[in-house]
Write a structure and sequence with these properties.
The chain contains 18 helices and five strands. The longest helix has 33 residues, at 107-139. The chain has helices spanning 3-34, 44-53, 57-65, 69-72, 81-96, 98-104, 107-139, 152-179, 184-195, 197-210, 215-237, 276-299, 302-309, 316-337, 340-350, 361-386, 388-396, 404-436; strands at 239-246, 248-251, 254-257, 264-269, 352-354. 73% of the residues lie in helices and 6% in strands. The strands form two sheets. The protein has a three-stranded antiparallel beta sheet with strand order 4-1-5. Strands 2-3 form a two-stranded antiparallel sheet. It is globular, with a radius of gyration of 25 Å.
Length: 439
């Protein structure tokens, strides 16, 4: 291959990936522009000051998933959370309801029907959440005087703005997944987290300046962060390899062993579920807090306010529920996307077997046990990473302005983006080679 062919080869390769990267950046740009478009009729400065000075896990997580739109009272204030909630419900239904289970087995057609149901449910949830938010702004004492004119026109504009903003983000997420780089929903959340980093750095430096935080604690914090990031990358890239071998075929009284390499492995990722359990758990854990705060607004009962205190991030009940939810979604999502029975059937069709394990049910049980142990370890790993801010606070008495869930999402999504870019490069290289030699 001469120099011109090499330039042509890499030029075409880069051009296809460049188009995907440009589309991704344009979509993120639209998302960030929308995060600063305010809803008419709201005192933005007053509400922003209230939310910045109110230490509330509900507002923190809500603001992360909306990319800072909550502080700006923008049309994207609901963020992608209704779509995440709808996805949780639909995935639970595919596991428990026969109708959706059969749809899930029908391939692309069934998945397209499930996606339609997910979109409809997203629309309904966004309407409900928009109505609850506007009622909260009107009734909650913290948000007194933030609405200029409370009339039916304002309510319609407010609800319609939030619903349209959520549907736009859902559409953007789907288009990024199809034409861009990475998973669209994860990338939107990833962008929202990155947008909050400058503000967090400011508060971090301010805390160092005006408190007794010593230089040793700062070094300890930096070292622990590096260790955590290294640990996340190590686990995300780690795989459990199962040694397999092709079977033999007898022709003309001779045995032919179909084995292309000396050692062939079935690689199983330790973190099969990815960041889904942490996102789902973070979404669900704030629902009781929001419910009790909302009940306290309308019924003025002290019991609801007391119950809401149990769901703050520093309470033991919150930590316990978060731990349980992460474990549940780790196992649920892992066995939803990784089915040992299907792998066993594929092994039998291809004449592959695990060395030392009988084909059929024994193979299925063997793979199932390995996946179970990996998922148990993975759930503990995700819990530890997501609860790191609490551990930091207990160790050095310093409030860390970056949640463990956010840290996990940033690192995992970055790894996924790099992996997908590498895969696209290799795919385009092989495609050009096939075209060159007319294969």
């Amino acid at each position: 291959m001469n120099i011109k062919e090499v330039i042509f080869f890499f030029g075409n390769d880069f051009k296809k990936i460049k188009n995907r990267i440009i589309f991704t950046f344009l979509s993120i740009f639209i998302f960030r522009i929308g995060s600063f478009i305010p809803i008419p009729g709201i005192n933005i400065n007053l509400l922003s000051n209230i939310l910045e000075h109110k230490n509330n896990v509900f507002f923190d997580i809500f603001n992360i998933f909306s990319g800072g739109s909550l502080l700006h009272v923008s049309v994207l204030m609901l963020g992608i959370m209704p779509y995440i909630s709808a996805s949780i419900v639909m995935q639970l239904l595919t596991f428990t309801c026969n109708y959706f289970t059969q749809l899930n087995k029908e391939g692309e057609y069934g998945k397209s029907i499930i996606n339609i149901y997910t979109r409809i449910l997203t629309l309904l949830l966004s309407i409900i959440q928009a109505v609850m938010i506007v009622l909260t702004f009107e009734k909650f004492n913290y948000f007194e005087n933030i609405i200029y004119h409370t009339n039916s026109l304002f309510y319609c504009i407010f609800v319609l703005s939030l619903v349209v903003g959520t549907m736009l983000l859902m559409w953007l997420g789907e288009k990024i997944s199809e034409y861009g780089i990475g998973n669209g929903v994860s990338l939107i959340i990833f962008t929202g987290i990155l947008s909050s980093i400058p503000k967090n750095i400011y508060f971090f430096l301010k805390d160092i300046k005006f408190t007794k935080l010593v230089f040793l604690n700062f070094l300890l914090l930096s070292f622990l962060l590096l260790v955590v990031v290294f640990f996340i990358v190590f686990i995300e890239k780690a795989k459990r390899k199962i040694l397999v071998q092709y079977g033999t075929k007898r022709e003309n009284n001779k045995n032919y062993i179909f084995n292309l390499e000396k050692n062939i492995y079935l690689p199983i990722k330790i973190n099969i579920s990815g960041i889904i359990p942490s996102i789902f758990a973070s979404t669900i854990i704030i629902l009781p807090l929001f419910l009790f705060l909302w009940l306290n607004i309308f019924f003025k009962k002290k019991i609801f306010f007391i119950l809401s205190n149990y769901f703050y991030y520093d309470h033991y009940l919150y930590l316990f529920l978060f731990f349980i939810l992460v474990i549940f979604f780790c196992f649920f999502y892992t066995f939803l996307v990784f089915n040992p029975h299907n792998i066993t059937m594929d092994f039998q069709k291809s004449g592959i077997y695990i060395i030392g394990v009988r084909p059929g049910n024994k193979t299925r049980l063997y793979i199932n046990n390995i996946v179970f142990r990996l998922t148990l370890f993975n759930s503990i790993y995700i819990c530890i990473v997501c609860l790191i801010p609490n551990l930091f606070y207990e160790l050095i008495g310093f409030s860390f302005y970056f949640s463990g869930t956010s840290l996990l999402i940033v690192v995992v999504v970055t790894i996924e983006i790099i992996t997908q870019i590498k895969s696209l490069i290799m795919f385009n290289k092989y495609l050009l080679l096939f075209k060159k030699y007319n294969i």
